[in-house]
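User: Hi! I have a protein structure encoded as tokens and I'd like to know what sequence might fold into it. I'm fairly new to this, so please keep things simple.
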């Protein structure tokens, strides 16, 4: 099987770092700024930055709706930090009218660990990820407040117990920035997820007016999801 081609949404955030991490994890990687650049990719990475800025820029560059529909139709996607917010179905403290790509049945709180001055590094235990902890970089990081029953919890921050890594089907999200450290386990997992989906016919994106990852909304959250090991997630 040929290496998958993964796009990195190149509107804000650590785009070069994600491109390098994906290549080191065995994938081809290209920046994506325009809707036509979504054609032909096997997966999509949504970098960190600021979630409302990512939303507005993706709308301004005509990428929001095409990306949302592709994700809803089964395109594998990985979001880090603000990218986690962009994959959440619900944002606890979003700005009025804020939209996300959606797809993961979770409620995420922006800046859950504090502001820029409260940024920190910590060792994260990834369920089934081996004995070595993963060093995680948290920069104005979000956290998952509620996860639905189909969401696998892959990692928590030890000091607070907050959920910081999740997976639901073809979607993966972390509250931290794995692209900023040499540890490639998270990117390797995503490349494996994308590779597993290669060759499968992709479902058509929903037509206007149909449900397709409706994005952020304020609903009563479900109970936290069941924990799944890192190896099972692979």
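Assistant: Happy to help. Inverse folding works backwards from shape to sequence: for each of the 234 positions I chose a residue that suits the local structure. Here it is:
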């Amino acid at each position: 099987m040929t290496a998958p081609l993964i796009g990195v949404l190149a509107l804000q955030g650590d785009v070069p770092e994600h491109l390098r991490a994906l290549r080191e994890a065995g994938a081809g990687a290209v920046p994506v700024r325009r809707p036509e650049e979504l054609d032909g990719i096997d997966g999509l990475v949504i970098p960190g930055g600021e979630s409302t800025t990512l939303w507005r820029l993706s709308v301004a560059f005509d990428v929001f709706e095409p990306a949302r529909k592709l994700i809803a139709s089964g395109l594998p996607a990985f979001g880090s930090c603000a990218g986690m917010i962009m994959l959440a179905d619900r944002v606890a403290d979003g700005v009025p009218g804020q939209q996300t790509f959606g797809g993961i049945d979770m409620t995420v709180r922006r800046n859950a660990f504090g502001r820029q001055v409260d940024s920190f590094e910590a060792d994260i235990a990834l369920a089934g990820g081996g004995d070595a902890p993963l060093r995680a970089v948290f920069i104005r990081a979000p956290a998952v407040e509620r996860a639905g029953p189909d969401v696998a919890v892959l990692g928590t921050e030890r000091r607070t117990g907050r959920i910081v890594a999740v997976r639901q089907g073809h979607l993966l999200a972390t509250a931290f920035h794995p692209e900023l450290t040499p540890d490639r386990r998270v990117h390797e997992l995503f490349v494996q997820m994308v590779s597993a989906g290669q060759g499968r016919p992709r479902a058509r994106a929903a037509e206007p007016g149909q449900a397709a990852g409706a994005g952020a909304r304020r609903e009563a959250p479900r109970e936290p999801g069941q924990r799944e090991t890192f190896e099972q997630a692979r």
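A useful reference point when you look it over: The helical segments are 15-24, 51-60, 64-72, 82-86, 185-197, 230-233. Feel free to ask if any position seems puzzling.
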